[in-house]
Design brief:
The chain is of the alpha/beta class. 35% of the residues lie in helices and 26% in strands. The chain has nine helices and 14 strands. It has helices at 57-64, 95-103, 119-129, 135-148, 164-176, 194-209, 221-227, 245-250, 255-264; strands spanning 3-7, 10-14, 19-28, 31-41, 46-50, 72-77, 80-81, 86-87, 90-91, 106-107, 183-186, 214-217, 230-235, 238-243. The strands form four sheets. The protein has a six-stranded mixed beta sheet with strand order 10-11-12-5-13-14, with helices on both faces. Strands 4-3-6-7 form a four-stranded antiparallel beta sheet, covered by helices on one side. A two-stranded antiparallel sheet has the order 1-2. Bound molecules: adenosine-5'-diphosphate and magnesium ion (MG). Adenosine-5'-diphosphate binds at residues 28, 33, 51, 53-59. Magnesium ion binds at residues 57-58.
């Protein structure tokens, strides 16, 4: 539901964010890895999450689509709170959770393609088996997506026949095949040889320009600065700084942000 605020006598309507995260917390044993994280992703927004190793970036992404079960807080997609049940501490899988994961697919550092399937089948599988799309239609769509990420001529190859950059582009096509509401990327270029980073970033940049809503954990500060329109710095599981890239990178307000940026820039 859109929210209405009365400002100086006029009613301002704020559109419902695509993704709203409120006070998300998560501990592993006695370690509090996420400590009350809130953020909004508007439709079409590209958010970069930066921060030192161990600051909770991956856990935050994983809590959004319930690859990790948060201890507290709320996630809402298009205004609908994500609901889940646990049994003996484990997530109870349901159609809703499958649908959520389809709406919020994750691209991992390590590609995670299915090794025994061709690239085309990797992209078409979930639409057929999870979304129930007709096989021919799913394969046709998969082929179009492979063209979009520059892999039209690799459709019949197996993952081990591809370079790391090509595998990651195939993984991006696989995420797009779910017709996602928000694309999640967890350090999508960290496992790549330096000369292959650019081709993957280029694909992600084109997705940003095409209006996809995306949340990226990244060490690529240039990319975070140039492509995203919102940057969140996590520190010990909490948001230390958040704002447009010009503000976060050029005029950080917190001491922690200034320190972190000095260490990576
Ligand atoms: P980042 O992605 O920013 O490097 P992570 O979210 O992966 O950070 O991890 C944050 C902290 O949580 C780290 O101390 C990590 O060791 C711990 N952690 C992450 N996942 C688990 C897990 N499944 N079990 C126990 N500890 C975990
Ligand atoms: Mg991580």
């Amino acid at each position: 539901m859109p929210t209405h605020q009365r400002l100086g006598g006029t009613i301002v309507t704020t559109p419902t964010p695509r993704l709203a995260v409120r006070h998300l917390s998560k501990s592993f044993g006695s370690i509090r890895v996420l400590d009350g994280v809130s953020l909004d992703a508007e439709k079409g927004q590209v958010i970069s999450i930066i921060g030192s190793s161990g600051s909770g970036k991956s856990t935050l992404l994983r809590c959004l689509n319930l690859l990790e079960v948060p201890d507290a807080g709320e996630v809402a997609l298009d205004g609908q709170p994500v609901r889940f049940q646990t049994r003996r501490g484990r997530l109870h899988m349901s159609r809703e959770i499958q649908a959520l994961r389809a709406s919020l697919p994750m691209v991992f550092q390590s590609f995670n393609l299915w090794r025994h399937m061709t690239v085309l089948d990797n992209v078409a599988a979930a639409p057929i088996h999870v979304l129930g799309r007709p096989r021919a239609e799913a394969r046709e769509h998969a082929a179009a997506l492979l063209t979009r990420v520059g892999l039209a001529d690799r459709a019949g190859h197996y993952p081990h026949q591809l370079s790391g950059g090509q595998q990651q582009r195939a993984a991006i096509a696989r995420a797009l095949a779910m017709e996602p509401k928000v694309l999640l990327f967890d350090e999508p270029t960290s496992a790549l040889d330096p000369e292959l980073v650019g081709e993957v970033l280029k694909v992600i940049e084109a997705l940003a320009e095409a209006g996809n809503t995306m949340i990226l954990v990244t060490h690529e500060m240039g990319f975070a600065r140039n492509v995203s329109n919102h940057v969140v710095l996590l520190d010990h599981g909490a948001v230390a700084e958040a704002g447009p890239p010009e503000q976060v990178f050029e005029a950080p307000t917190s001491e922690r942000a200034a320190q972190f940026l000095a260490s990576v820039m």
